[in-house]
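Field: COMPLEX_INPUT
Field: COMPONENT_COUNT = two
Field: RESIDUE_TOTAL = 707
Field: MODE = joint
Values follow.
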Amino acid sequence: MSHAVTEAPGQPARPQGKPALSEGKKAERKLGLLLCAPAALVMLAVTGYPIIYSIWLSLQRYDLRFPDERQFVGLDNYVAVLSNSYWWTAFGTTMFITVVSVAIELVLGMALALIMHRTLVGRGLVRTVTLIPYGIVTVVAAFSWFYAWTPETGYLANALAGDGAPLTEQWPSLWIIILAEVWKTTPFMALLLMAGLALVPDDLLKAASVDGANAWQRFSKVMVPVMKPAILVALLFRTLDAFRVFDNIFVLTNGANDTGSVSMQTYNNLIKGLNLGIGSAMAVLIFVTVALIAFIFIKVFGTAAPGSDQGSKR
Amino acid sequence: MAEIVLDKVTKRYPDGALAVSEMEIEIADGEFVILVGPSGCGKSTALNMIAGLEDISSGELRIDGSRANEKAPKDRDIAMVFQSYALYPHMSVRENMAFPLRLAKVADATVRSKVEEAAEILDLTQHLDRKPSNLSGGQRQRVAMGRAIVRSPKAFLMDEPLSNLDAKLRGQMRTSVSKLQRQLGTTTVYVTHDQTEAMTLGDRVVVLRGGIVQQIGSPQFLYDHPANLFVAGFIGSPSMNFVPATLEDGTLKSPLGTIPLTDRVRRLAEAADAPREVVAGIRPEHFEDAALLDDAHRHGGVSFSATVDVLESMGAEKYAYFSLEEDLATTAELEELAADAGAGDVPGGGSAVVARLAASSEAREGSPLDVWFDPDRIQLFDPAKGTNLTYSA
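Field: COMPLEX_OUTPUT
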């Protein structure tokens, strides 16, 4: 304070003016916090509490069949889960379904988005038709896939599977699960990507075609880089979603033949097996994995969003 | 470098709207041609058709003597500068400028030297590794120019390239665009709605209205010999004053008084078979404060007296606005021009006669002023058809 005064004599208004300004800012910040508080409290109650409670449960031996043996065991449950081959099989299956279905969804979603973006006639109709799968309840859709692939009565089984029962074999089952996932969520991907497409100015594409780019080069060298943030958001959303795949597997195979996901495993242990400790440890592991995926994606965002971010980074 | 020929080029949209109608221009090799007109006149559509960004409905476009209607933009070897600059936001300045060369698979060393050469010309060397988002408007504009010139294309197409710059920068860039074009000698088609750019930049100006070419000529020729009311009103700033007038016994009865016709004007009007009721046009700069003229000079012209409503002093000159008892001439063309200038939004806008006076004039707001003009400078227009009755090539 005294420094400021000695260095800038004859300007006493400034040091006096500053606290007044920050006072106003303080009040503003306080008001902001107050306005956020109700939402934050609800969030804490409905997400914070369950997360913390399941972490607490995961640190205990707690099987509802033997409630008397409840005991704090530290990380034992995690050791049990992580050293178990069933968990890792389920983890591998989940990863496979996630990566393959999101990759297919990205390609198909982009194609759909381009079609919806470019459609001149009946735009509303095209968009509505595209969104129908997304509007159907997953379990209902899963059942229709299930019946379609049921030998003798299912039209897809009759047409494609011959005498076999695809839902009783591991690889055919996995591909059918992926098919159901892709069918169901590609429209969501397409919607997100279409929003990104709208961000690519027409002039850029015109400039690229005058600069000598063909259709593919316009797409890959201009459109995709410019809409990269939207693509990453779409990928993040879908990856997080896909990693938690449950309903399709539950209906189609119920996890038989090593087709269960980590969510299936958790369900089997927690709800069917009544083992709260092991089940909660699995739930926490899923939570950690999902958080890790989100973290990696957001790291990628920070470095790769084109154009606008550079200025703010400096 | 190439010549560009538009042979009855027409653009008709699927809904039937006619954007460009039978446009006929021969643009010589190295020429700088301006397409000018109010918004919606078809100038950008015409440019997009030359670029290949819009299909040509009928007629033929020839670049360098060969038909280009069906060629894709990338095969026309033409560079374009957009109003929005259309810089690729994910590429550095260097990559932006190199993009067309990379697509053309030019060798790396050549790309580097060409980009650096262009950057040198445009004073962008120290910005080569920055992203467009970190550049000022003027710098972005120069990058857009750079991307056009690196390829040494057959022609430059520019779509209002300076419209997004502030007035001062626009003036500077106008000069440098003109210099650059002369230096490179590349055929250029330049679209603008700004008549100042049209007057100062082009070798020839094409004035468009509603998709129809109104007149083609050098800027000075359009200024001196406008073919019709629209061109007369569009070219020149402030624009020409138009008053209704009646031809009677070799004189012109108008709100500015009875004006004797000079021999030249009378001969041209008779040759054009002028109707009795006409629109008389006179440019603001052809008026003068009568008090500043010596007697001999004064008797060579006509004077009238009017009260100055508003006086704007520009330093080097003064603009005096006065309203007349009778309304000013109105025709479809003039209304369109007024609407384009935004006069419709200003109450009473466009209903005053403007005179440009010398700075030494002692005219004052609210006082009457004797205004002098040379009747030979008057141009007469047909109020129905808009044609210039005193047109002489």
